[in-house]
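Input sequence (263 aa), recorded before submission:
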Amino acid sequence: MKPYILYLIDFSASAKGFGAPGDDCCADVVVVGAGVARAALAHTLAKDGRRVHVIERDFTEPDRIVGELLQPGGYLKLIELGLQDCVEEIDAQRVLGYALYKDGKNTRLSYPLEKFHSNVAGRSFHNGRFIMRMREKISTLPNVRLEQGTVTSLIEENGTVRSIHYKNTAGEELEAFAPLTIVCDAFFSNLRRSLCNPKVDVPSHFVGLVLENCDLPLANHGHVILADPSPILFYPISSTEVRRLVDVPGQKLPSVANGEMAK
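Predicted structure, token format:
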């Protein structure tokens, strides 16, 4: 799974009003992308009275194997942000702890939830369903503008990021200004490369499978198998599906076409 990085960049422009797409200085904050962290941040800033312009490359439901298991601390943070309903109506599963397996032995590790309300637990789900619920939530706020587009570059002036260039769905090249922009992106991002020179090392890949109607040894638990040569994870993502993640060592992902992946 790819680690994520958050950049906070001060813009030299000042916000003048929340106008039409492409207008200069039409927001207090520009948020690039509408994933989990960015949608939650856009919601929080908007509830605090900021005008937030969210530019997302693709608003269709994503299908990813990352961000599928929310720990209890994450659920408590959703409550704090007023976003706990985003794990409702998506067939999310309660997670109460982990089962750990190694060398023929196993043990159970439960979350210390005794001091919390009975509804507090981990949640596992389809990542895309969760993201769509969060996007739906922020779309109801009057001071949030969601726009589909691809951010192509950060524009600098005298060592300061002044604005961003992006292309909308009509293919128009537009520029967006705000006192602050937030880019929360994967480490293969071109925007990240424009800000720093990260050393990217890929020691392995997580390969995901979905098992249907498969009962795990412990219900409502994640399962960690410390296997040779690398770990394997199992956890429910719906009432009928279990995610299996296999860590495959090596910088190159084995080919599905020639049978290397199956082997």
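Checked by second reader. Helices lie at 36-47, 72-81, 127-139, 190-195.
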